[in-house]
Amino acid sequence: MARSCRLRPASLADLLELAELERGAFSDPWTEAQLRDALGWPGAIAIVAENTSGLTGYVLGRVVVDQAEILSLATTAAHRRRGIGRALLTALLAAMVERGAHSVWLEVRISNQAARAMYQSVGFVAAGRRRDYYRQPLEDALILRRELTAERVNAT
Ligand SMILES: CC(C)(COP(=O)(O)OP(=O)(O)OC[C@H]1O[C@@H](n2cnc3c(N)ncnc32)[C@H](O)[C@@H]1OP(=O)(O)O)[C@@H](O)C(=O)NCCC(=O)NCCS
Questions:
Q1: Which of 78, 125, 83, 132 has its CA nearest to residue 109?
Q2: Would you tell me the crossing angle of helices 15-25 and 32-39 to the nearest 10 degrees?
Q3: Is 71 in contact with 127 (CB distance < 8 Å)?
Q4: What's the CA gap between 85 and 25, in Å, rounded?
Protein backbone atom coordinates (compact mmCIF):
# COMPACT_ATOMS: atom_id res chain seq x y z
CA MET A 1 0.00 0.00 0.00
CA ALA A 2 1.15 3.57 -0.68
CA ARG A 3 3.23 4.69 2.29
CA SER A 4 1.31 7.96 2.61
CA CYS A 5 -1.92 6.05 3.39
CA ARG A 6 -2.80 4.85 6.88
CA LEU A 7 -5.64 2.69 8.18
CA ARG A 8 -7.81 3.48 11.20
CA PRO A 9 -11.29 2.59 12.50
CA ALA A 10 -14.09 4.64 10.93
CA SER A 11 -16.15 6.98 13.11
CA LEU A 12 -19.39 8.92 12.69
CA ALA A 13 -17.26 11.97 11.82
CA ASP A 14 -16.37 10.17 8.56
CA LEU A 15 -19.99 9.79 7.39
CA LEU A 16 -20.02 12.58 4.79
CA GLU A 17 -16.81 11.34 3.18
CA LEU A 18 -17.95 7.71 3.33
CA ALA A 19 -21.16 8.59 1.49
CA GLU A 20 -19.09 10.46 -1.12
CA LEU A 21 -16.83 7.42 -1.52
CA GLU A 22 -19.90 5.23 -2.01
CA ARG A 23 -21.29 7.57 -4.70
CA GLY A 24 -17.97 7.55 -6.51
CA ALA A 25 -17.70 3.76 -6.46
CA PHE A 26 -21.21 2.29 -6.91
CA SER A 27 -24.22 2.79 -9.19
CA ASP A 28 -26.51 1.97 -6.21
CA PRO A 29 -24.57 3.59 -3.33
CA TRP A 30 -25.38 3.46 0.37
CA THR A 31 -26.69 6.81 1.63
CA GLU A 32 -25.31 8.68 4.61
CA ALA A 33 -28.33 7.54 6.67
CA GLN A 34 -27.80 3.89 5.71
CA LEU A 35 -24.12 4.17 6.57
CA ARG A 36 -24.92 5.74 9.95
CA ASP A 37 -27.26 2.83 10.74
CA ALA A 38 -24.74 0.24 9.59
CA LEU A 39 -21.91 1.68 11.72
CA GLY A 40 -24.16 1.13 14.75
CA TRP A 41 -25.11 -2.48 14.00
CA PRO A 42 -23.96 -5.02 16.59
CA GLY A 43 -20.70 -6.58 15.40
CA ALA A 44 -20.04 -3.87 12.79
CA ILE A 45 -16.42 -3.23 11.83
CA ALA A 46 -15.51 -0.27 9.61
CA ILE A 47 -11.99 0.71 8.64
CA VAL A 48 -10.89 3.68 6.55
CA ALA A 49 -7.73 4.39 4.60
CA GLU A 50 -6.66 8.03 4.51
CA ASN A 51 -3.88 10.29 3.36
CA THR A 52 -3.30 13.97 4.10
CA SER A 53 -6.09 15.01 1.67
CA GLY A 54 -8.80 12.75 3.10
CA LEU A 55 -10.24 9.27 2.81
CA THR A 56 -8.91 7.07 0.00
CA GLY A 57 -10.97 3.98 0.80
CA TYR A 58 -13.09 2.12 3.31
CA VAL A 59 -14.40 -1.29 4.17
CA LEU A 60 -17.43 -2.26 6.22
CA GLY A 61 -18.28 -5.68 7.60
CA ARG A 62 -19.91 -7.34 10.55
CA VAL A 63 -19.50 -10.42 12.70
CA VAL A 64 -22.49 -12.34 14.03
CA VAL A 65 -21.36 -15.09 16.41
CA ASP A 66 -18.78 -17.00 14.29
CA GLN A 67 -19.96 -15.87 10.83
CA ALA A 68 -18.77 -12.67 9.17
CA GLU A 69 -20.03 -10.70 6.19
CA ILE A 70 -18.39 -8.00 4.07
CA LEU A 71 -20.96 -5.29 3.35
CA SER A 72 -19.02 -2.73 1.34
CA LEU A 73 -15.49 -2.02 0.16
CA ALA A 74 -14.35 0.83 -2.05
CA THR A 75 -11.32 2.93 -2.88
CA THR A 76 -11.43 6.31 -4.61
CA ALA A 77 -10.95 6.15 -8.38
CA ALA A 78 -7.76 8.24 -8.11
CA HIS A 79 -6.16 5.78 -5.69
CA ARG A 80 -6.95 2.40 -7.22
CA ARG A 81 -4.44 -0.32 -7.95
CA ARG A 82 -2.08 0.83 -5.20
CA GLY A 83 -2.81 -1.96 -2.74
CA ILE A 84 -5.30 0.02 -0.64
CA GLY A 85 -8.26 -2.30 -1.31
CA ARG A 86 -6.26 -5.38 -0.38
CA ALA A 87 -4.83 -3.67 2.73
CA LEU A 88 -8.34 -2.75 3.90
CA LEU A 89 -9.59 -6.25 3.20
CA THR A 90 -6.71 -7.90 5.08
CA ALA A 91 -7.19 -5.58 8.07
CA LEU A 92 -10.91 -6.38 8.11
CA LEU A 93 -10.31 -10.15 7.96
CA ALA A 94 -7.84 -9.90 10.86
CA ALA A 95 -10.38 -7.90 12.92
CA MET A 96 -13.04 -10.51 12.13
CA VAL A 97 -10.77 -13.32 13.34
CA GLU A 98 -10.11 -11.35 16.54
CA ARG A 99 -13.87 -11.13 17.10
CA GLY A 100 -14.26 -14.90 16.76
CA ALA A 101 -15.38 -15.32 13.13
CA HIS A 102 -14.65 -18.70 11.53
CA SER A 103 -15.74 -17.84 8.01
CA VAL A 104 -16.68 -14.81 5.94
CA TRP A 105 -18.89 -14.31 2.90
CA LEU A 106 -19.92 -11.49 0.59
CA GLU A 107 -21.88 -10.70 -2.56
CA VAL A 108 -20.32 -9.14 -5.64
CA ARG A 109 -21.72 -8.20 -9.05
CA ILE A 110 -20.98 -10.93 -11.55
CA SER A 111 -19.47 -8.32 -13.93
CA ASN A 112 -17.16 -6.78 -11.29
CA GLN A 113 -13.90 -8.30 -12.51
CA ALA A 114 -11.66 -6.01 -10.42
CA ALA A 115 -13.33 -6.93 -7.13
CA ARG A 116 -13.58 -10.61 -8.04
CA ALA A 117 -9.84 -10.70 -8.83
CA MET A 118 -9.06 -8.98 -5.53
CA TYR A 119 -11.16 -11.41 -3.47
CA GLN A 120 -9.76 -14.40 -5.35
CA SER A 121 -6.23 -13.16 -4.64
CA VAL A 122 -6.89 -13.40 -0.90
CA GLY A 123 -8.48 -16.85 -1.00
CA PHE A 124 -12.21 -16.30 -1.55
CA VAL A 125 -14.01 -18.97 -3.59
CA ALA A 126 -17.41 -18.99 -5.30
CA ALA A 127 -20.18 -20.40 -3.11
CA GLY A 128 -23.37 -19.58 -5.03
CA ARG A 129 -25.28 -17.05 -7.05
CA ARG A 130 -28.32 -14.82 -6.37
CA ARG A 131 -30.39 -14.08 -9.47
CA ASP A 132 -31.25 -10.41 -10.15
CA TYR A 133 -29.89 -9.39 -6.75
CA TYR A 134 -28.61 -5.95 -7.80
CA ARG A 135 -30.51 -2.95 -9.23
CA GLN A 136 -29.20 -0.15 -11.49
CA PRO A 137 -28.42 -2.21 -13.49
CA LEU A 138 -30.23 -5.43 -12.70
CA GLU A 139 -27.60 -8.12 -12.28
CA ASP A 140 -26.88 -11.40 -10.51
CA ALA A 141 -24.69 -11.52 -7.43
CA LEU A 142 -21.93 -14.03 -7.01
CA ILE A 143 -21.56 -15.24 -3.43
CA LEU A 144 -17.95 -15.63 -2.33
CA ARG A 145 -16.78 -17.32 0.82
CA ARG A 146 -13.56 -17.86 2.71
CA GLU A 147 -12.64 -19.78 5.84
CA LEU A 148 -10.92 -17.66 8.49
CA THR A 149 -7.97 -18.78 10.55
CA ALA A 150 -5.40 -16.48 12.11
CA GLU A 151 -2.55 -18.12 10.17
CA ARG A 152 -4.23 -17.79 6.78
CA VAL A 153 -5.27 -14.16 7.30
CA ASN A 154 -1.75 -13.19 8.34
CA ALA A 155 -0.36 -14.92 5.27
CA THR A 156 -2.42 -12.82 2.79
C1 LIG B 1 -12.47 -3.36 -6.09
C2 LIG B 1 -11.65 -2.23 -5.49
C3 LIG B 1 -12.07 -2.01 -4.03
C4 LIG B 1 -10.15 -2.62 -5.53
O5 LIG B 1 -9.43 -1.63 -4.82
P6 LIG B 1 -7.89 -1.30 -5.17
O7 LIG B 1 -7.40 -0.40 -4.08
O8 LIG B 1 -7.77 -0.82 -6.55
O9 LIG B 1 -7.28 -2.76 -5.06
P10 LIG B 1 -5.73 -3.16 -4.91
O11 LIG B 1 -4.84 -2.14 -5.51
O12 LIG B 1 -5.49 -3.50 -3.47
O13 LIG B 1 -5.67 -4.48 -5.79
C14 LIG B 1 -5.73 -5.78 -5.20
C15 LIG B 1 -5.88 -6.81 -6.30
O16 LIG B 1 -7.19 -6.72 -6.85
C17 LIG B 1 -7.14 -7.05 -8.24
N18 LIG B 1 -7.55 -5.89 -9.02
C19 LIG B 1 -7.80 -4.63 -8.55
N20 LIG B 1 -8.23 -3.83 -9.55
C21 LIG B 1 -8.24 -4.60 -10.67
C22 LIG B 1 -8.59 -4.35 -12.01
N23 LIG B 1 -9.00 -3.13 -12.41
N24 LIG B 1 -8.51 -5.36 -12.90
C25 LIG B 1 -8.09 -6.58 -12.51
N26 LIG B 1 -7.73 -6.90 -11.24
C27 LIG B 1 -7.81 -5.91 -10.33
C28 LIG B 1 -5.69 -7.44 -8.53
O29 LIG B 1 -5.57 -8.82 -8.25
C30 LIG B 1 -4.96 -6.62 -7.47
O31 LIG B 1 -3.70 -7.13 -7.17
P32 LIG B 1 -2.40 -6.65 -8.04
O33 LIG B 1 -2.49 -5.15 -8.17
O34 LIG B 1 -1.27 -7.12 -7.19
O35 LIG B 1 -2.54 -7.34 -9.36
C36 LIG B 1 -11.81 -0.90 -6.32
O37 LIG B 1 -11.61 -1.19 -7.69
C38 LIG B 1 -13.16 -0.24 -6.15
O39 LIG B 1 -13.39 0.55 -5.23
N40 LIG B 1 -14.10 -0.57 -7.08
C41 LIG B 1 -15.46 0.02 -7.02
C42 LIG B 1 -16.23 -0.51 -5.81
C43 LIG B 1 -16.30 -2.02 -5.79
O44 LIG B 1 -16.48 -2.66 -6.81
N45 LIG B 1 -16.19 -2.59 -4.57
C46 LIG B 1 -16.27 -4.02 -4.35
C47 LIG B 1 -17.68 -4.39 -4.06
S48 LIG B 1 -17.87 -6.12 -3.69
A1: 132
A2: 120
A3: no
A4: 12
In the chain the domains, ranked by start, together with CATH numbers, are 6-155 (3.40.630.30)
Distance from C-alpha of 69 to C-alpha of 96, rounded to nearest angstrom: 9
pLDDT of residue 3: 66
Q: Is 21 helix (H, G, I), strand (E, B) or coil?
A: helix
Q: Summarize pLDDT for 54-79 with one digit per residue, the tens.
A: 999 999 999 999 999 999 999 999 99
pLDDT band at residue 151 using 50, 70 and 90 as cut-offs: low
Q: 86 in ligand 1 pocket by Cβ < 6 Å?
A: yes
Cα 119 to middle of ligand 1, angstroms: 9
